[in-house]
């Protein structure tokens, strides 16, 4: 029995599936109808989804079915759940169900963000509506994404050596942005940004500036 319990625990870890199937604080758990599935499913502020008690009628019989906590699956690292309605099954990300039920419809141009960076923590207090750029910036700040600037960027046309040469040549005088742009095969605006250190940052402070420019461009 102990071995079986340990195996189940290890399987839960491997699946990243620490879903609150037995929440001790159930007395404080709040439930709302799943939007579009009213009367069929409920979602809680702890990120749990359950079916509603219902009666199924047959031609000569009637069956009472007890609602149950839905066991989630995983999709791209997020908890998902399959819901049935009119003999049709649709799959939803649980964090979106929680946000829609408690915050209301997601505003245009916004999406749900996990505040602590944990995709599996669908508690209401861990969710918020943000813009796509804000979501990306948050991911960088949480260390979930890595900032790639300068020569390491996949679209970089210049090397660090080129950048240093451009700055040194311009500071020496006698050359314009357009001449440097033609020489290195880039736009004169990029030359301006390089000279004024708006691109190709080489210090910690400028790294953040590069990140903000990358986010704004998305």
Task: Report on this structure.
- With 218 residues, this protein is of the alpha+beta class.
- The protein has two domains: 14-141, Homing Intron 3 (I-Ppo) Encoded Endonuclease, Chain A (Alpha-Beta Complex), CATH 3.90.75.20; 150-216, no CATH class.
- The chain is built from seven helices and ten strands.
- The chain has helices spanning 2-14, 94-103, 132-141, 160-172, 177-184, 188-195, 204-216; strands at 31-33, 41-44, 49-51, 54-57, 62-65, 73-75, 78-85, 88-93, 110-114, 127-131.
- The strands form four sheets. Strands 1-2-3 form a three-stranded antiparallel beta sheet, with helices on one face. Strands 6-7-8 form a three-stranded antiparallel beta sheet. The chain has a two-stranded antiparallel ribbon with strand order 4-5.
- The longest helix has 13 residues, at 2-14.
- Summed up, the helix count is 7
Find the count of extended strands (DSSP E, 2+ residues).
Answer: 10
Q: CATH topology of the largest domain, what is it called?
A: Homing Intron 3 (I-Ppo) Encoded Endonuclease, Chain A
* Percent of residues in β-strands: 15-25%
Query: Which regions are unreliable across 5 or more consecutive residues at pLDDT < 50?
Result: 1-18, 202-208
Q: What's the mean pLDDT score?
A: 78
CATH architecture of the largest domain: Alpha-Beta Complex
* Alpha carbon gap, first and last residue: 53 Å
Amount of helix: 25-40%
């Amino acid at each position: 029995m102990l071995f079986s319990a340990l195996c189940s625990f290890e399987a839960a870890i491997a699946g990243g599936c620490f879903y609150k199937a037995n929440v001790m604080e159930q007395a404080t758990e709040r439930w709302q109808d799943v939007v579009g599935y009213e009367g069929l499913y409920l979602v809680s502020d702890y990120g749990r989804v359950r079916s509603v008690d219902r009666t199924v009628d047959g031609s000569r019989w009637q069956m009472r079915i007890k609602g149950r906590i839905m066991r989630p699956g995983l999709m791209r690292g997020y908890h998902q759940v399959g819901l049935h309605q009119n003999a049709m099954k649709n799959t939803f990300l649980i964090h979106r169900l929680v946000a829609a039920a408690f915050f209301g419809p997601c505003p245009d141009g916004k999406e749900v963000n996990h505040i602590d960076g944990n995709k599996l923590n669908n508690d209401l207090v861990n969710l918020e509506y943000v813009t796509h750029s804000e979501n990306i910036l948050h991911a960088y700040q949480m260390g979930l994404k890595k900032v790639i600037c300068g020569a390491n960027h996949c679209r970089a046309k210049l090397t660090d050596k080129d950048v240093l040469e451009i700055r040194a040549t311009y500071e020496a005088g006698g050359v314009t942005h357009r001449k440097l742009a033609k020489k290195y095969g880039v736009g004169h605006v990029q030359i301006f940004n390089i000279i004024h250190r708006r691109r190709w940052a080489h210090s910690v402070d400028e790294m953040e500036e590069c990140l903000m420019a990358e986010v704004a461009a998305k």
